[in-house]
Structures are given as C-alpha cells and as structure tokens.
Amino acid sequence: MARKILRTELCDLLDIEYPIILAGMAEHAGVELTAAVSEAGGLGVLGALPMSPDELDEAIREIKKRTSKPFGVDSIAPLGLVESDEVIDLRALLAEDSGELARIRDYIADLGRRMGIKVPYGIKLGVNNQGFNWSPGMTKKQLEVIYEHKVPVFAAGLGSPEFMIKEAHQRGMKVIGVVGTTKQARKEASVGVDIIVAQGTEAGGHTGKVATMPLVPQVVDAVRPTPVVAAGGIVDGRGLVAALSLGACGVWCGTAFLGTFEAMSHPENKRQLLAASESDTVITKTMTGKTARCIKNPLQEQYEKENGPILPFPLQVLAASELIQYMSAEDDTLKYYWTFAGQGCGLVKELRPAREVVRSMVEQAVEILEEGLPSRIKWSHQRKAPARRKPGKKPAK
Q1: Taking the domain 8-88+135-265+344-374, which CATH number applies?
Q2: What is the pTM of this model?
C-alpha cells in the first residue's frame, strides 16, 4: 500500500515527511522512541532534561545509529536559571538540616510514609535522587554536546531559548519555543525562534490555562509569518486536521506517543494511561513545583487535600520523584506513581509501535480531508445576483 502524502510548510522547514513532532518528554522520549518517530516520517525529539552531558552524548550517538533522518533535542531554559555557566548542585540545598527547604522536604517524606510508602526514616529526600541531573547551568553544558553533534533542531520545552538562538542559527539549527499564551508567543517570535508550539491546557506535563482551540488561532494571528504548531489534546488524525484548520502547520504530540512500545516509560505509567479517561487528569504543582497535568492518583490527591507545602522548581522534582524508588507492587504503592498525560488519554486504547501512531494519524487525516469532510459538509460560493432593470428601461446592447 502506497504511503499517504500529507505535507505542510513544516515538512519543508524541518525536512520531514509528515507534520508531526514528538514532544520531547523527559524520561519518556528516549533514544528508541525518538528514532522511531523520525524513521516513520515525523520529527523525533529526545527528552534530554534528566541527562548529564555524557548521557546526552551517548544518546545522540545511539539515535544516529538508528536513523539518518532529522531529529531534535528538548531541554528546558527557565529564565534566570540558564544565564550562569556554573552548574549548581541542587542536592546540596536539600541536604540542609534546618530551614524551610528542609521542612518541606521532610513533609514529603512523612506524607509518603503515611500513604504506605516505605521511605526510610532519617533520609533527606532528594539528596540521593540519581534520576534527575539537571541544574542551573546544565542546559548550556547540554548545548555544547548538541552543537558538537550538529543536531538539526533544539526545542525549549519550558522557558525561553532566547539566550542560544543566535549561536544556534549560526550553526544552521532550527529552534522551537513552546508557549501557552499569545504574549509569550509574541516574545518568542521577537527573539527569532523558527517554530512556535502553541500548547493548550489539555496537554500533559507542564501546561498553562488556555485551551488549544482558542489559543492556536490567536497565536497564529499574533506571530504570522512564524510557523505555529499546535499541541494539547491532539492524539489522532482528527486532532491533526483540526489543528491545520486553526492555522497551525503541524502538531506536537506527547500523550499519543506515551502509549507506544518504544516509550521509555515505567510499566505503571503505561498501565495508568491505558486505564484513564479524559476526566482522570488534573493540573497540580505537587510533582514539579510548577503547574503540570497528570493522571490523578491518591498520593497527589492527599497532598492537595492537606494543602501541603511545595518546594520551588526544580527542587520539588528532586524530592518528590525520589519517592518513586520506594514504591513497589508488593505493598500496592505503585498506584502512586506519577504519570504526566493530557486529556487526550482516553483516545489511547492500546500500546502500539510508534510508526503505527504516525501512520494511523496521517491516514485518518488524509481520509477526513479527501472523503470525510466532503461527504458531510456542503458549501458553495455565493454568486452576486444580476442587477435589476428599472421598469421601462431597455437592456444595453
């Protein structure tokens, strides 16, 4: 069967076959998923946030072994945290014996124990977390690796990439910025990003307050001619067509690819995803210290019921995510595992190969454009009615 053709200006800009970008989800969009999406004709984007420069170097080398097609790398660039070249040890801040940070750290550990998680007493939560290596200054170290490998695309999943755009363009790279408001979009366009992802509140992970449907056309109007990609609640070909009709030139998808064999997610993440409906997600600060959409779980609900204190980002990530290493199936605490997912989760019914997600999205979109819409919608151009002749006046020869 011949491959469907579905191209937009995004395909020409990024040298890809289909206008579908993998959201660079930290800890989920790994080597295998990134390469698979690129091989399928989209743009795979590696989630580099938790990686050290050495780990990132190895990951990029592995991706290049698996695909010769374009791919990108995603990290974060929160203002004020990337301006310094100094790599700060965030764990040292959580190692203090007293003060507000220590109080909140210990509250999280105590909450875990009360929920049945076997958190050892006396532990300073977050200090021993080896799964999250990012710290202020780390993004610049990651960029050195990205530049060395001539990665064609960099995406700032959180924060503004303004600080690196000039050098990236000098090296021939394309830069993607992710926004949740038209104000942010105008700022990103003014500093020269090549593509703006307008992400609605339906999206999983860090997200804003404006829904995708009203956000995308307003961003398109605000930043034209900068290309806009839609994100938030887009899981299949119907969402892709809707995004194109709003003026976007492509889609940025995360939840759709969480439900793949290649996603580097914990089995509990995938179990929760397949069991969830659109009403099973919530926006909370309990996971990272910033508003993020995840699938509801009893630990998060108890945290919010108690109005528990929150560490500033990214310290909350360090402390809260260390709870995971003490969860287990034996004592039924894996159900507390935090799963970032968008409101489109109810459309993910089974695990599939990433190439199948891309293929089915494209085929469904083409079918809608070729047959679905024309068969359901009738329209015509209004013809201008001929001018009426005044009584007694002869028509012109």
Answers
A1: 3.20.20.70
A2: 0.91
